[in-house]
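Quick question: what would this complex look like in 3D?
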Amino acid sequence: MKVTVIGIGLIGGSMALTLKEQGFAEHVIGVDTNPDHIAKALELGLVDEIMPLEQAVDASDLVILAVPVNIAEQLLPVILDRVQKHVLMDVGSTKEGVINLIAQHQKRGRFVASHPMWGTEYSGPSAAISGAFTDKAAVICNQDDSDPDALALVEKLYETLGMHLLYMNAKDHDVHVAYVSHISHITSFALANTVLEKEKEEDAIFELASGGFESTVRLAKSNPAMWVPIFMQNKENILDVLNEHIAQLRKFKSCLEKENYAYLEELIGNANGIKRILK
Amino acid sequence: MKVTVIGIGLIGGSMALTLKEQGFAEHVIGVDTNPDHIAKALELGLVDEIMPLEQAVDASDLVILAVPVNIAEQLLPVILDRVQKHVLMDVGSTKEGVINLIAQHQKRGRFVASHPMWGTEYSGPSAAISGAFTDKAAVICNQDDSDPDALALVEKLYETLGMHLLYMNAKDHDVHVAYVSHISHITSFALANTVLEKEKEEDAIFELASGGFESTVRLAKSNPAMWVPIFMQNKENILDVLNEHIAQLRKFKSCLEKENYAYLEELIGNANGIKRILK
């Protein structure tokens, strides 16, 4: 099968690598606007050749749209206009906007909206990893709006990547990822800024940073070109979670201010409930 | 050398294990009030024998106090009263309270206040790990108040554990750890509570949790018996950091509410500055 990957970064590159290794893709065509990324993707063997967007779509059976979600919204209608029997899928972290955008498109059935739940704080083709998606979840949204053969192909792709599939509507997906992904990035960015602000006064502060700090702050390395559009598109859900999170932080603040350590212990005991989820 | 470890948990147990393996400690005596922890520590070979506190102190050259910081404050004066030529060290996450408490004690010089910058979200002797401290930083506070031979022994201990040493006064230490350790735990606890609150309505939410979520929330598994006393003792510093962190989160909130995405990008770009610190 000929596969085009539009956006040869962390996600697109990692997919290309694994799909080639698994024999799912015999030939991978890359599309990218960044000359450095193109050179690196060819050097690393993530893609077999580079083509302009239109030619690449025409030459392939499956098109994977792996660009930031704002660019995905620009490209999706253009690509759908060009699609015949092709299957087109995206991998973005927000789903409702993109789905609403092409809901009435006559080729809607050729599109499968999906979101593989894997990523790192790094970006670009150098960050691509073979086997990255193994044992993670992939979400397919509004699957009834996709043609059965298109859906089946995308399901086979995710199984080839070693992922287990979840199905949900785009609206629920966007609420859930606000809780289990987007807010983690905002807290990490804000924590980095809190500590960097203090560092201006105190050089020595990071000599003490240990594993716990690194764990909660590493997402703050994430690329704004990817995350600003996600926050824009999922603004309402993220604001709900952010308000709740600030309210939860204020409970800790109030416990300290009032020296209410019994309630502090209760708050921490409740947070320990996360052990049910994270083994 | 005979070493007594009071509190055979994550830190005390990991120290005992490595100090025995490295030949620093020929014999390790354990002191603990928890019968399950005693049985487990003996079973895992973390300690050679168990004794009551007074006997253990009398029988050893070096005493490591590795209990929660509130218990450390109770035990420290009691042990110092009993000390002759022994060296006594603590390993707690707050330093000013404990140092002020015994500042005028006639045996003050036998005590070395220290803080090895390593830990995990797990606790108890089963969580102990050999070689855990390698390449991490250990802080020694107010070193001029310790006798030279006591200081030298504790320095040798941390070098045996493979740690590099930092020296600072207790006040600075407590400010720094509020930024690079304590606030990370509060944000993690609060994030866990934020998401667990939502989970009451939405069963499926955690099926989507990926590595980023786990990274920012794993500290929420941490033991309240250890952390409530730390938050109590470092209350003022933590409140300063928590207020700053809530202010930073409000900036993200304001960007979303006002759709000021240029400033949002600036905030994230600034947070990316953490790359200078975390490689």
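Answer marked as accepted. Residues 2-168 of chain B form a domain with the Rossmann fold fold (CATH 3.40.50.720).
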